[in-house]
Amino acid sequence: MTATLGAVVDAIEQAYPPALAESWDAVGLVCGDRAEPVDKVLFCVDPVEATIEEALEIGAQLVVAHHPLLLRGVHGVPADEPKGRLVHRMIRNGVGLLCAHTNADSADPGVSDALAQALGLTVHGPLDPHEPGSRTGIGRIGELPATEPFSVFLRRVADALPATAWGVRGAGDPDRPIRRVAVSGGAGDSYLGHAARAGVDAYVTADLRHHPAGEHVERGAGLPALVDVAHWASEWPWCQQAAEVVRSALAGTVEVFVSTRRTDPWTLHAQPESRGATE
């Protein structure tokens, strides 16, 4: 029995309903024929040259990506432009592209559940629910099996996620006890207020900007300690979650692969040789 591209799309969209996507988002099938057979699917965060090349190397007929390829409106996809080149390459090689972005962020389980699981948290609910009592929404609030110092928790985060040049940064007292934790995969400084109101001990997210983070720290010691990770790394655990969705829905008919290509744009990190890492 052979699965079709449409069957994979249906499985993903049942797990991550497009109706959950933000109004500005661009989710769904970018290219590909729903009637075509599929026996290999690659899951990744970013639909870029490296991951499309990986899909071709393994013979995948579909790439499922978290980030949209064509998020903003376009009037064409010429092959001499980066995004157009990818579209042409995929179509020429019979590779479809499906994007699940903010619908995967808000779904239950979704991107932040995968991040929480990677950190060893037991999830209690969303950080910003769609409505009171809802299990869907942005971010998750969870709990560690036992309290640990912030410095140990920071190492836990670094060990749980794929390594990047960006690394993992923390803002807070290294000896502060951490038990209740909020997480939000992707850029999450717009949810600093939600984390503060949730009364958690730490907030893990990506792309924390200088001013929002600084203002948060200045507001007082009772607010959550902050952990800032690379955007790509915070969302990479979702790839395995989404792969399991397809593996379970189409057992025995589709082989799933999680991309091993690091597509975080930052590739180098340097500290002055004469100074310590904390300066």
UniProtKB/TrEMBL annotation:
The keyword Metal-binding applies. A divalent metal cation binds at H66, H67, D105, H231, E235. GO terms for cellular component: cytoplasm. Keywords: Metal-binding. Pfam families: DUF34_NIF3. SUPFAM superfamilies: NIF3 (NGG1p interacting factor 3)-like. Coiled coil: none annotated. GO terms for molecular function: metal ion binding. Homohexamer. Belongs to the GTP cyclohydrolase I type 2/NIF3 family. PANTHER family: GTP CYCLOHYDROLASE 1 TYPE 2 HOMOLOG (PTHR13799:SF14), NGG1 INTERACTING FACTOR 3 (PTHR13799). This is GTP cyclohydrolase 1 type 2 homolog. It comes from Kutzneria albida DSM 43870. The lineage of its organism: Bacteria, Bacillati, Actinomycetota, Actinomycetes, Pseudonocardiales.
